[in-house]
Amino acid sequence: MNGSLRPPASSWRRAATVMLAAGWARPSPAASSRPPEGFRLLLLQRSGSQGFLPKAHVFPGGLESTADSSADWLRLFAPHHRPPRFGLAPARSRPASFPGLPDAPAAVADGDAAALPDDVASRICAIRETFEEAGVLLLRPRAALPAVPEVGRALAPPPGLDAWRDRVRRDPRHFLSLCAHLDCTPDIWALHDWGGWLTPFTGPSGRRYDTAFFLCCLSEPPPVYPDLTEVVSYQWSSPSEATESFISKEIWFAPPQFYEIRRLGNFASLSDLHKFCLDGASEEMERWLPITFLTADGMLELLPGDELYLEDSKFLENAMSTGKKTEEIMKEGKIFHRLVLHSRHVYNLHVTLQSKYKHVYPKTYIISKSHL
């Protein structure tokens, strides 16, 4: 493998995101033809002034900070939760889809030998960013964990929410101060490993992120307070509602968010989703780098397991390409794990392989030709 093809470590930025799924008892419109779905997902709309994914609807999350792995958290977690695992299940590896991808070590302050493990720091990052962007506090009072894992509940926002949020945004270390003030710890136990996505190559100056994805089940939707800086609006949507809004051009998703929403469409209720997370707690996590494949008239994003996916470090910094049209490429293949991007609001998802471990992949989803 040619080491010169690897991007420098500084070009891969660690991030974390959490998909908040909340129980939903409100009835659907009587005229709706959709099957009933027992949970909704929190979707945040990014400001149009943001440099990355402007105006996109995303899950809460953002970049990791050294503050997220600071040893100062140890005092807050004590005495009930101690290193190395703080009551979490054994660490789950996040293998790269092929050699040459970053190992993604946790951000550690200089000389901070007692910094938190990677997956604990990533959870704290996701929880902090959820507070910054949406005003939702995924915290737990400093007490022993319940004997049986349960569906979580967000903490009521504190007085002076905006002031605290401004402090945390200016300096992430203030999130620990907020938790200490409330005598709470980040509810890292409510965040379940879901997977990881690495930003594919889109050009020499494109931003690259190594993002851990978590899933958090809440018994009911908490109040949401967009910060009106990074996030300008929000909505709670079921997977089918989110898909319909995307197709009708009401909202826009980047491919990973679209893929995950379709994957979550496999679950009919919050309890099914929560049980799935608990049952798969010992399974290895999948961490994917999509490969961009340019055709004569369009673009595909290939995922591991697809027959065209090449585990070659060359594609860390390059796209694949062909002179054939997309339809020709699709007719030639049989083993698919890919997104076909026809336009900004038309993604076709093709999945013909079985998922690894106990995970679940989305079903094939083809948008009507009338949308093309």
Verbal overview:
This protein is α+β, with helices and mostly antiparallel strands and 372 residues long. The chain is built from 8 helices and 15 strands. Strands 1, 2, 3, 4, 7, 8, 9 and 10 form an 8-stranded mixed β-sheet that branches. Strands 13-11-12-14-15 form a 5-stranded mixed β-sheet, with helices on one face. A hairpin with a 4-residue loop joins strand 11 (291-294) and strand 12. Helix 5 runs antiparallel to helix 6 (255-264). The longest helix has 17 residues, at 118-134. The two termini are 40 Å apart. Mean pLDDT is 87; it is low at 1-10, 30-35 and 104-114.
Short overview:
The chain is 21% helix and 22% strand. It is of the alpha+beta class.
SSE inventory with pairings:
Layout: E1 12-23, E2 39-46, E3 57-58, E4 61-63, H1 73-77, H2 118-134, E5 139-141, H3 161-170, H4 174-182, E6 184-186, E7 191-198, E8 208-218, E9 231-237, H5 239-247, H6 255-264, H7 270-279, E10 287-288, E11 291-294, E12 299-302, E13 320-321, H8 326-332, E14 337-343, E15 346-351
Parallel strand pairs: 1-8, 7-10, 11-13
Antiparallel strand pairs: 1-2, 1-4, 2-3, 2-9, 5-6, 7-8, 11-12, 12-14, 14-15
Helix pairs in contact: 5-6
